[in-house]
Design a protein that fits this description.
Number of strands: 18
Number of domains: 2
Strand content: 5-15%
CATH class of the largest domain: Alpha Beta
CATH architecture of the largest domain: 3-Layer(aba) Sandwich
Bound molecules: ligand NAX, adenosine-5'-diphosphate, potassium ion
Distance between the termini: 17 Å
Number of helices: 17
Helix content: 25-40%
CATH superfamily of the largest domain: Ribokinase
Structural class: alpha/beta
Length: about 500
């Protein structure tokens, strides 16, 4: 089985580099390896002898660029080197490799990009620490205007490796070669859209060095949770596969619950029941077949239904209404100590009231699934949670605050656990932005939790499966399609 892919922030990467250097590999060897990997990638992008311009910044990223320039020149390419700053100003390993460049250098603003068949962007990588201005900004502007292909070293300059933010301006690369591990900024938006194809070069950083970084952020992919997905045993019966209860909204707001219920059933929960307000029983009954239906009158009704111990996972929130009654439903669900998914109105009903939920879900596995708007409303008045510039960090803090897994949705959905693990999802499609899509996601999460997946694994698997299903369908997708696409994705994962 593939190991889960760890993503390292630039700060964590520095710790991993330090670990390698402690074990005896000099930093300059890492830089030589990095530069050689960039040169290899460059050769794949142009024909022999091509004109290549390398633009190098003042730090180690520039050092990698100078190594690549030196290699490519030795290999017969017509390479010119533009520096941001003076050659003498380099320090550390970059100063060592700068001495090896045998030819002239020009200032970045003097570098002629017009004849270049490839521009190698080695201005800034993991050390970017502020907004880009002045000569660096002008250089990036010219790179982007040049129209030719750009190969970025480590990160497109201007992209923050931790957050994926554009720090004022950023290079648009056709390809990015990064080292040892991808960075969150390669996956988080908008960073992802600036990188082009990202490849990871092995520069001699081992897996124990990666672990020494303390990083706990992963790419959301099957390696992270596939083993946890259960297959029914030969003699297992439906209740062993879990029983999900989905709370339905009122008579004109029942679709969301049915979408979630259908998804829970498709992902493998043995039994799924919709808990419907009395006035909505007729409309729900008219549209449910395999899914069971029970009348449920508000929080008291929910409390009564939960006397049935077999109900082991709940979905509360979609289309319930933003009301005190919804808050009371959440309280009943939390007190019942069942696996719980909270979405939509269950979250918005606590607008500015997150403190009422502080550590509220310690006693049972719980997942919240806000999009950005719901997240901002829920944590109004909590700048410690809302303000971090990294989406991963925001999700992590929310998870720790509530003692629940937080799924912060969007085109770069982040899943974070209270223990600090986090995953960034990247297999989605904009076609998932369709009414009811989030309701289906809730149902998948609950269906997996009902089958005893731990909350983090259930949420991460559900986000990936939901995205995979949407991407497989593509144009024309509506939410009703999503549950019906689950079997193929599941069969691909389980090999059956
Ligand atoms: N052992 C090593 O030396 C290794 C270095 N590596 C490379 O090292 C890079 C990180 O190197 P550094 O930490 O030196 O960082 P960078 O080279 O990314 O940038 C740091 C330099 O840029 C300046 N700077 C930061 N933001 C700026 C802004 N907005 N405007 C103008 N100047 C700005 C800083 O003052 C500093 O001089 C990685 O991206 C990678 O390319 C890797 O090759 C791995 C091994
Ligand atoms: N551009 C996109 N790329 C990938 N996934 C997306 C995109 N836009 C939306 N999604 C996904 O679609 C789902 C939408 O959920 P949500 O906003 O709750 O919608 P609704 O309330 O209509 O159900 C989320 O899982 C989100 O991550
Ligand atoms: K760069």
């Amino acid at each position: 089985m593939n190991a889960p892919e760890l993503l390292l922030t630039p700060r964590e990467m520095r710790k991993a580099d330090a670990s390698v250097i402690r074990s005896g590999t000099p930093g300059v060897t890492l830089m030589q390896n990095a530069g050689a990997a960039v040169a290899d990638a460059a050769r794949e992008m142009v024909s022999p002898g091509a004109r290549i311009v390398v633009l190098a910044g003042p730090g180690q990223n520039g050092g990698d660029g100078i190594v690549a320039a030196t290699r490519l020149r030795e290999q017969g390419y017509r390479v010119s080197l533009g520096l941001l700053g003076k050659r003498e100003a380099f320090s550390g390993d970059a100063a060592l490799v700068a001495r090896e460049w045998p030819s002239d250098v020009v200032a970045v603003d003097g570098a002629n990009l017009a004849p270049a068949e490839l521009v190698i962007d080695a201005l800034f990588g993991g050390g970017l620490s502020r907004e880009i201005e002045g000569a660096a900004r002008a250089a990036i502007d010219r790179i982007n205007m040049s129209g030719g292909p750009v190969l970025a070293v480590d990160l497109p300059s201007g992209i923050d490796g931790e957050t994926g933010a554009v720090r004022g301006i950023a290079v648009r690369a056709a390809r990015t070669v990064t080292f040892a591990a991808r960075k969150p900024g390669h996956y988080l938006l908008p960073g992802r859209t600036f990188c082009g194809d990202v490849t990871v070069a092995d520069i001699g950083v081992g897996s124990s060095d990666l672990q020494a970084s303390g990083g706990r952020t992963y790419v959301n992919a099957p390696a992270l949770w596939r083993e946890a997905i259960p297959r029914p045993g030969p003699s297992s019966h439906k209740y062993e596969r879990g029983h999900v209860l989905v709370a339905s909204g009122g008579a004109t707001r029942t679709g969301a619950a049915r979408l979630a219920a259908r998804a829970a059933l498709r992902i493998g929960a043995g039994v799924v029941t919709v808990a419907s307000p009395p006035e909505a029983l007729g409309v729900n009954a008219a549209q449910l077949t395999a899914i069971m239906l029970r009348g449920c009158d508000g929080p008291e009704g929910l409390h009564a239904i939960l006397a049935d111990e077999r109900l082991n996972a709940l979905v509360v929130g979609p289309a319930l209404g933003v009301t005190a009654v919804t808050r009371a439903m959440v309280a009943v669900a939390a007190q019942a100590r069942r696996r719980l998914v909270l979405d939509a109105d269950a979250l918005t009903s606590f607008e500015g009231l997150a403190s009422e939920l502080h550590q509220g879900f310690r006693s049972a596995p719980t997942v919240i699934t806000p999009h950005d708007g719901e997240f901002t409303r829920l944590f109004k008045g909590h700048p410690d949670i809302l303000d971090p510039s990294s989406k991963v960090e925001r999700a992590r803090r929310a998870a720790a605050y509530l003692s629940a897994v937080a799924v912060l949705k969007g085109a770069d959905t982040v899943i974070a656990a209270p223990d600090g693990r986090a995953a960034i999802n990247a297999n989605g499609t904009p076609y998932l932005g369709t009414a009811g899509s989030g309701d289906v996601l809730c149902g998948i999460i609950a269906g997996l939790m009902a089958q005893h997946l731990p909350a983090f694994e259930a949420a991460a698997a559900a986000v990936w499966i939901h995205a995979e299903a949407g991407a497989a369908f593509g144009a024309g997708l509506i939410s009703e399609d999503l549950p019906e696409l689950i079997p193929e994705v599941l069969q691909g994962l389980l090999g059956a």
